[in-house]
Specification:
The protein has about 375 residues and is α+β, with helices and mostly antiparallel strands. It has two domains: about 250 residues, 3-Layer(aba) Sandwich (Aminopeptidase); about 110 residues, Alpha-Beta Plaits (2-Layer Sandwich), CATH 3.30.70. About 30% of the residues lie in helices and about 25% in strands. The protein is built from nine helices and 21 strands. The strands form six sheets. Strands 1, 2, 3, 4, 7, 8 and 18 form a seven-stranded mixed sheet that branches. It has a four-stranded antiparallel sheet with strand order 12-14-10-15, with helices on one face. Strands 5-6-21 form a three-stranded antiparallel sheet. Strand 19 and strand 20 form a beta hairpin. Helix 3 runs parallel beside helix 9. The two termini are about 25 Å apart. About 5% of the residues have low confidence.
Amino acid sequence: MTAFDALDFHERAVRTPSHESVDEMRDLLVEVLRDAGADPTIDDAGNVLATRTGDGHGDPSVLDAAGDDGHGGVPEEGHLVVNTHVDTVPPHVPFAEREDGAVVEGRGACDAKGPLAALVDAFLTADVTDGQVTLAVTPDEERSQTGAAHLAGTLDADGFVVGEPTDLDVCVAARGQFEGSVTVQGTSAHAATPGDGDNAVRALAPLLQALETYDEEGGPGEHDLLGRPTLTPTVVEGGEVSNQVPAECTLTFDRRSVPPETAPAFRAGLEDHLSRWVPGSMGLRVDLRPRETPYLEAFATDPEEPLVRTLAEASGGDVRPFGAATEASFFAAHAPTVVFGPGVLADDEGAVAHSDREYVRRADVVAAADAVRETVSRLV
């Protein structure tokens, strides 16, 4: 058995491309887990799973359902899951160091191979007594989230720590993210006699105004942690030739939701609201863009949950919302969920995660591991 070195693993991980395929990165993760004495498995969705209990290794698929003890947090003899992902966005950015090695640069440095190194360290070294801890690492967070969607349906737990760059703050909420379209259906005619048709592009003008009023009349209202939802028109397509009244026009939108709004309720509510703004001779339809997995819904965990309080005390970080949609959405419906890790989404100079200047401080990777280790040891 080989002792796990979080910073050595982090460097190897950042040097390993995982923007097109995660196979090499997943193999590395499985290798270091086995070398450290864990017994990882890969499930049908490509997730890497390993579980520790007070008396050794457990089966992560045979667990008590969250909430059976009748209270929140992670109860005695409970089960805590630490989760993050191995995939990255393109293109691959090579590993580099600066500030005499204090800072690591490269694709995935903070999103999310820094959090991954910290969570693996905590998983392997936490003092697990009466309960159990599972490491669950997904393959496609940046794309379709099939791994997390599979876990949400098969992996029961009493609490989840999801690794993302939060600057060591404990994030207890995040907006959801939906994409869809509004299609207006009119009647074509010659542009010389526009009155003979129903111009779908012309009908778009009042609908754009109606989008601005949706949240005042039918939205979920302002959330205590996340503020107001947003509804942003992004793409307009309509018409075929310049001398014809267009029979159809499509408006694409981006929705950033807040609890308790769900994707189906939003779609139905928006369609009802906008239908009042089109003539009776025209049709209107609101569709959500098809996805392989459910949409990432907004979530909020009570800041007073034991998981939140314990991790905040261990890390010294603030308790706040997270600034992006994340796979935590899939887990928050089942148990208290927090987002936590080293690195930042952006700094004073601009974007960090997903940018060519992505970086993380090595000291923050170590600090994140220490905080999660202490949290796991105290709660399970």
